[in-house]
Structure formats: structure tokens, C-alpha cells
Design brief:
mainly alpha, 6 helices
Length: about 130
């Protein structure tokens, strides 16, 4: 199994980010070393490349890193509660759009599209990618 694990530089290269970004994401709990070598070097799972890309996609959509970290470390029950809250928020947004002035309907449609995009990204997160 050790052959498949990546050193920090290898992970950074595969993910297309700097080693400093890997350090920062590790500090925030966005990724976590799978194990350490006898020399105390961190080794990461190849799946962390996908996790880094997911974090970057969420960040591009304006989700703060601390919220991403919270979502990724949440338990399944917490995720269900979050999705319920999002559903209520989307219903509120739809009601607001229905009663809004025509010039505001376009803006609300853009917001709704962005929310749907974030939900799509969130649903792509495999349940086993949550940190313990």
C-alpha cells in the first residue's frame, strides 16, 4: 500500500497546486495524511488529488474554506440537515423570484443556478471521503 501513497511534492504536482497549498489545506483539515514515514514525512492518498480539485471548485463558487472543511468533516446526519436547510432556502428563493420585479428575476435566476451547481458538486462527494 505504501507504493500508492504520495509524498507532499508528488501530491502537489498531481493536483497542480503548490506544496504550500497542500500544507495550508492540511492545516485547515481539508486533507489529511494517510500515514507518515519513519522520517516523519507525510504521505497522502492519491484520492486527495480529487479532494483538492473538489475544494478548488467549491472555492471558485465562493464557498469559504472553513465552510468546505466543516462540510467535508461532517457526519452523514449533519449532511442531511444541511441539505434540508438548502431545500428550505431554495423554496424561499423561488418564492422571492416569483414575486420579484422583472429586473430582479434575472439576478435571482443566476443565484438559483449557482446554488444548483453547488448542490451538484456536493452530491459528487463520495460518503467515504468525509474525514473521521
Amino acid at each position: 500500500m505504501s507504493e500508492a501513497l504520495l509524498k507532499i511534492g508528488e501530491l502537489a504536482a498531481r493536483a497542480g497546486v503548490s506544496i504550500r497549498t497542500i500544507d495550508y489545506y492540511t492545516t485547515l483539515g481539508l486533507i489529511s495524511p494517510a500515514q507518515r514515514t519513519a522520517s516523519n514525512y507525510r504521505l497522502y492518498s492519491p484520492a486527495d488529488v480529487d479532494r483538492i480539485h473538489l475544494v478548488q471548485r467549491l472555492e471558485v463558487h465562493g464557498v469559504p474554506l472553513d465552510e468546505i472543511s466543516t462540510a467535508l468533516t461532517a457526519r452523514q446526519a449533519d449532511v442531511a440537515a444541511i441539505l434540508d436547510r438548502i431545500d428550505v432556502d431554495l423554496q424561499t428563493l423561488q418564492t422571492a423570484a416569483d414575486g420579484a420585479a422583472p429586473e430582479m428575476q434575472g439576478l435571482l435566476a443566476i443565484i438559483a443556478t449557482r446554488v444548483h451547481s453547488l448542490i451538484t458538486i456536493a452530491l459528487q462527494i463520495p460518503p467515504d471521503s468525509y474525514l473521521p
